[in-house]
Each structure stands twice: as structure tokens, then as C-alpha cells.
Write a structure and sequence with these properties.
- The structure is a single chain.
- The protein is of the alpha+beta class and 160 residues long.
- It contains five helices and five strands, in the order H-H-E-E-E-E-H-E-H-H.
- Strands 1-2-3-4-5 form a five-stranded antiparallel beta sheet.
- Bound molecules: zinc ion (ZN).
Length: 160
């Protein structure tokens, strides 16, 4: 994804109050983020418990920032991340809920989604998939997973 500035990030949120946006603390690694290897930006607030954020590039238009709250209960053990759909489960997957944007959210409507606990999706899709057969095109398979992740993330941004 394209590099984002703190200013862009703070102005991207569609389901957070002005106060919630002011309270956002960027991740400690923000200045060293490797944007080329990220399909979206996601982090847990280092100061406020039970609050996380994603900033999702859209296919067209500005990135969309979404405030998320992790569910108290862990999902059942075989949960799969809705975005990277990684089948090897290298990390925990958490059920996050997001208030919908605008009036719908103010009326209490939320949308829920299972995502990698610490937003490892970009790393997961960049790992080489297991060799399916002799001559299997690894590079193409990897690129396809990256493209699929980007589409799912953009789809979620558009639906919130
Ligand atoms: Zn994931």
C-alpha cells in the first residue's frame, strides 16, 4: 500500500468520534513501517485496552479508517481470518466488531469480522504456499493471495 501520514490516518476514520480519533496512539513501529509489504495498516491501541484500528486502502478513493473492538471471548479454535484466509493458522484470530459508519452506527449497528489478532494478514499471504505439485507456480500463487487479500480488505472498507 502507499505510505500514509499520521494526518491522513486521523482524517480517514469513518466510524469514530472526534474524541476517539484524538485518542488514537499510533503503533510504536509506525516510523519503520514497510509499506510495500502491507496491504492494510492494522494495530491495537498501545494505551487503550480493547481498541484496535485498521486503515484500509480502497480500489478507488481515499483509505478508510475503522475503529474495532475485540470480543471478550476467544473464537472457536478452528476460526479462520476472513481477510488472509490463511489455513496454516500461524497466529490467533479474533472476532472484532466495528460500529457502522454514519447514522447507522450512531443507531447502534455494528458489523463483525474474524481477523488475525495482530493483523498479520500481509505477512501470512507473503509466505510461500506449500508446493502443490511439481512445476507449481509459487510466485503466481503468492501474488494471487496478495491480490485476494487486497480485494477483501477493500470490500470490507466499502461495506462499513
Ligand atoms: Zn489474516
Amino acid at each position: 500500500m502507499l505510505a500514509l501520514t499520521e494526518k491522513t490516518i486521523r482524517s480517514a476514520f469513518v466510524n469514530a468520534s472526534r474524541k476517539e480519533v484524538t485518542d488514537i496512539t499510533l503503533p510504536a513501529w509506525f516510523d519503520e513501517a514497510r509499506w510495500d509489504d502491507l496491504d492494510y495498516l492494522g494495530w491495537r491501541d498501545p494505551r487503550i485496552g480493547r481498541r484496535a484500528y485498521v486503515v484500509l486502502p480502497q480500489l478507488e478513493g481515499d483509505p478508510v479508517g475503522i475503529l474495532l473492538r475485540p470480543a471478550e471471548a476467544a473464537p472457536r479454535s478452528r476460526a479462520q481470518c476472513s481477510w488472509c484466509q490463511d489455513v496454516t493458522l500461524p497466529n490467533a484470530v479474533v472476532f472484532y466488531s466495528a460500529k457502522r459508519a454514519g447514522a447507522s452506527g450512531r443507531n447502534g449497528n455494528t458489523v463483525g469480522i474474524l481477523i488475525c489478532e495482530d493483523f498479520e494478514c500481509s505477512r501470512n499471504v507473503r509466505r510461500n504456499p506449500p508446493l502443490a505439485y511439481e512445476g507449481y507456480d509459487l510466485a503466481a500463487a503468492r501474488q494471487r493471495r496478495i491480490d485476494d487479500l487486497r480485494l477483501r480488505v477493500a470490500g470490507f472498507a466499502a461495506s462499513t
